[in-house]
Design brief:
Elements: H1 3-29, E1 33-34, E2 37-38, H2 41-65, H3 78-88, H4 90-109, H5 115-130, H6 147-156
Antiparallel strand pairs: 1-2
């Protein structure tokens, strides 16, 4: 695989996985944290499921870059991911196992409300996603302000 193709795969997967993490963080805010616990397990479940999906996106790209043969079926088991990653990177395996336990099992299925545990799950997810961070991130053009913002700034500034 050519270097340019690898960087393109990394970039697309990294941006998408980061988008999942950011969306998950927004959903988690709806759970309303009080002390060290979230009030609403529904939003915790949604956020953890979304963050874990970002992990799986990153892992798919990582394994593709390492020329690991992917199973034909779209839905892959955790055993596939752990056995594949175990052969490539033991430290990444630790982050994957922790993200799986915290985000998928405790967060998504059980709706754990302990904010400290969820935070660790998100940190581990970000560690997995960082493995596919491209060497070069192109700068996006500055966002053009909406018409309403331009009119507002023209009238009031």
């Amino acid at each position: 695989m050519a270097l340019k193709e690898q960087q393109e795969i990394k970039y697309k997967a990294y941006v998408e996985a980061q988008r999942y993490i950011e969306n998950a963080k927004e959903v988690l805010q709806k759970a309303k944290k009080e002390d060290d616990f979230y009030n609403d397990p529904k939003y915790v479940r949604m956020a953890c499921g979304t963050a874990y999906s970002g992990v799986l996106l990153a892992l798919d790209a990582y394994l593709q870059l390492k020329d690991v043969e992917m199973p034909k079926k779209k839905r892959r088991s955790i055993e596939f991911y752990t056995s594949s990653v175990a052969q490539l990177d033991k430290k990444l395996l630790l982050y994957l196992n922790s993200a799986y336990q915290v985000l998928h099992l405790s967060g998504y299925y059980d709706g754990i409300r302990d904010a400290r545990v969820v935070k660790i799950g998100f940190e581990n997810a970000e560690q997995v996603i960082s493995r596919i961070k491209p060497d070069y991130m192109p700068e996006l053009p500055p966002e053009k302000p909406s018409l309403l913002k331009r009119v507002y700034s023209f009238l009031f500034l």
